[in-house]
Write a structure and sequence with these properties.
This protein is an alpha/beta fold. 22% of the residues lie in helices and 29% in strands.
């Protein structure tokens, strides 16, 4: 069975979004978890998907122009992820969404569909979140590894990563790496 790896950027106090509904402390939305060589599938929740589609479509359409959401020209790392993501199958776990403009996007209707996806041959699966789906799939026993990039910030308000978790889970620390600007990368195996 393939591994499902959740990767999230969080504040030191465990927030994945600030009070405005996004992580304003993240400079570039790129894959910094070291996953691109080991994954061939991406999974998102239905709440996160519309913003994901809007964000990355804008980069695809105008890679050298200021992004309409951030006001910044996309970073080289964002352009690299955009190219990778455009050719990588994406699955959205949602009971309500029915259409997607992002290339190679399909819908999964329940956790059983996601379990069946994990059982198919292939590389590992990248669970991009958000918080509710990540906590729910950890509770369902479908997430094997958690990769966090912790920002040196106390956000104080926003969306906590584990607010929706219903069960206690033990994590085994597998890797710690100091990154630039006081950030820390943590990799945990979920048991």
């Amino acid at each position: 069975m393939r591994k499902m790896i959740a990767g999230l950027k969080i504040s030191l106090d465990g927030m994945v979004e600030g009070s405005e509904g996004y992580a304003d402390w993240v400079d570039a939305w790129c894959e910094e978890y070291g996953l691109t060589s080991q994954i061939d599938t991406c999974v998102l929740g239905g709440r996160m998907y519309p913003g994901y589609e809007q964000y990355w479509t804008a980069i695809q359409d105008a890679p050298d122009k200021p992004h309409p959401l951030s006001g910044k020209v996309p970073a080289p790392e964002e352009l690299e992820w955009s190219r990778f993501a455009a050719k990588t199958p994406h699955y959205v776990l949602s009971n309500t969404l029915t259409s997607a403009a992002w290339p190679h996007t399909s819908f999964l209707r329940d956790v059983a569909d996601l379990k069946a996806l994990k059982e198919q041959p292939g590389k590992d699966i990248y669970l991009m979140g958000g918080a509710q789906i990540t906590a729910g799939l950890i509770d369902a026993g479908l997430v094997d590894e958690l990769r966090l990039i912790v920002y040196p910030l106390i956000a104080q308000a926003g969306t906590p990563l584990f607010a929706a978790a219903e069960n206690r889970h033990n994590l085994e620390l597998r890797k710690v790496q100091q990154l630039s600007a006081g950030r820390v990368s943590l990799t945990y195996e979920i048991s």
